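check these tokens.
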Amino acid sequence: MGLKHSYTLIAPFYDLVVAKATHAIRKTSLQQIQQLSRHGDKILITGIGTGLDIPHLPADRFYTGIDLTPGMLNKAARRKGAVNITLQLGDAMNLPYEGASFDLIVMHLILAVVPDPQLALREAQRVVKTRGHILILDKFLKPGQLALLRRLANPITRHIATQTTVVFEHLLEECKSLAKVEDEPVLAGGWFRRIVLQKTKD
């Protein structure tokens, strides 16, 4: 089952499963927008899904939210409120934007979902401006962590909803322009992490 197809089926139930569990950690992550960007900055949200991030966004920036699934975007559109956000159908692994187009990028629960998380992070590196930031919230194994149950589940879950064996450090190794600024465990015994990156060079 392809990602677009599976999330089309999941869209009507997504909020019931995810909203309450991630509300607090989303809010904490998105508070960084006030500190790391300025009034009028352009911010990209990759994999915006049903728009659970939207209520936590400062209203004085210009946002673009991209997602692969029309059903998810339809639900996100109902959450727009006063936030200046453009919603667009698109792929986090092949972003339809010029390089250095955004001052900040939000990647919440997307790197462990896409088939190629390395490519998705490289695309974010490409379209964020130098000295801009990337806010990441997702589940990652630690380097060398056994996590046998997660590894056994991954061949099934990766085709339905999410990968369970992504190691963030391996992704970052291939993105030479990105430096880790913050890395904090936030949920499920540290499986979920809140990470802040900065692009340090072109």
The two ends are 37 Å apart (CA to CA).
